């Protein structure tokens, strides 16, 4: 990033940028994460002002502020639906009043389809990631699901450290079984 922002190869700017990266790059990976970007922009707002100004100018000149506001609102709606589907295991959110009564003139059905397709892509990506790293770490939702679904005795009897998915069935010393998502079932 530093090389691409240089001004005609001037080393003075490169040195200042490297100092700023050292100061704000908390995890020392050479990249600005979103949290690091927010912190840097809060402390030194003029650093990114040219980029923000360029973005505003481009948006005004291409589609106009009103259209970009509509695009952003549409993206937020799709993100909200994807989050709902992720939280409720792929179930679509219930239709709103506007969708029920004005469905023939509303574009919400098309946006719901986009959200469903993006959710499917997210799930496929997770599945591919799990297959490529079978001994990898569990994600935070997996850990929460296992903690809710199993007792301490069952969790210690199973080897959950290296498995990519919850086991299909396991029997603890009490004789209860767990189903494919780690929730206890009775015999």
From TrEMBL:
GO terms for molecular function: calcium ion binding. Residues 126-187 are annotated as: Disordered. InterPro entries: EF-hand-dom_pair, EF_Hand_1_Ca_BS, EF_hand_dom. It comes from the Eukaryota. Residues 148-158 have a biased composition (Polar residues). Keywords: Calcium. Transmembrane segments: none annotated. Residues 167-178 have a biased composition (Low complexity). Residues 12-47 form the EF-hand domain. Pfam families: EF-hand_1. This is EF-hand domain-containing protein. The lineage of its organism: Eukaryota, Sar, Stramenopiles, Oomycota, Saprolegniomycetes.
């Amino acid at each position: 990033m530093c090389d691409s922002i240089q001004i005609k190869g001037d080393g003075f700017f490169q040195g200042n940028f490297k100092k700023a990266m050292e100061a704000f790059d908390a995890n020392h990976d050479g990249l600005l994460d979103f949290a690091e970007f927010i912190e840097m922009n809060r402390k030194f707002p003029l650093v990114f002002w040219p980029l923000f100004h360029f973005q505003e100018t481009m948006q005004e000149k291409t589609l106009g502020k009103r259209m970009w506001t509509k695009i952003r609102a549409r993206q937020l709606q799709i993100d909200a639906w994807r989050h709902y589907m992720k939280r409720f295991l792929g179930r679509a959110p219930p239709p709103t009043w506007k969708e029920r009564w004005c469905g023939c003139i509303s574009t919400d059905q098309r946006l719901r389809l986009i959200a469903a397709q993006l959710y499917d892509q997210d799930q496929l990506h997770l599945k591919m990631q799990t297959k490529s790293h079978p001994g990898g770490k569990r994600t935070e939702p997996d850990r929460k699901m296992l903690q809710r679904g199993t007792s301490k005795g069952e969790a210690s009897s199973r080897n959950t450290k290296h498995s990519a998915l919850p086991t299909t069935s396991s029997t603890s010393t009490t004789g209860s079984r767990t189903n494919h998502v780690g929730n206890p079932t009775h015999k």
